[in-house]
Amino acid sequence: MDLQKQKAVLAGILLADLVLGIGILLVVSGVLGPGGFRQTSAGQEYMEPKVAALTFDDGPNHEYTELLLQGLRERDVKASFFLIGESIEGNEALIKQMVEDGHLIGVHCMQHTELTKEKVDHAIAQLESAKDRIEEVTGNQVEYLRPPFGSWNEVLDETVRAELDMEPVFWDVDSRDWELRSTSAIVKKVVRDTENGDIILMHDEFGTSVDAAFQIIDNLMAKGYTFVTVNELMVD
Ligand SMILES: [Zn+2]
To answer: Shortest CA distance to 144 belongs to which of 69, 236, 21, 214?
Structure first.
């Protein structure tokens, strides 16, 4: 092989290395998206990028919310919190931390009553009062609410949208965490039931729920999921 040919072959090898190198870098740095390639025993497998939203009702909880926020921060996961108005006082620092960490904050209720069983003006007054308390702490407008027990009707829907400029958020996957109280059972149910685009309902008032949330995140992330706040999944 003459010198020219040797140079050409060498340049070819270097170029191939460079292309391979950039490819690996892109995958490692996540440029190919949250899906990307995953090494399996059978070789490389492409995973479709998938999204889900973790939502936590009934907080803030002075015992568990801080722990949950820490774990979410470590995993760089954003979640959505629907708060009880009456639990806000004394937990302002937790709520400010939620904002700082990029989580979405919505209204759950004032006293966890079933809104459809109340007079509309009373239900609206309760939601407004919880909304005001949150806004006083965060300085941001609250745009979403999660009705307790998912109990909702057309009149409430129209009135809340018109008078409070809020939108209800329901869920696709019910963890039943308040009932199961077993980390492994909650993880199993949620991981089995979650599909692309789903909203997952949990409660940050039990240690088992917080532990389960971390395992759910780790498990679903390994399946190509990224976690977003509910506003990113709402389409209307
Ligand atoms: Zn609740």
So the answer is: 236
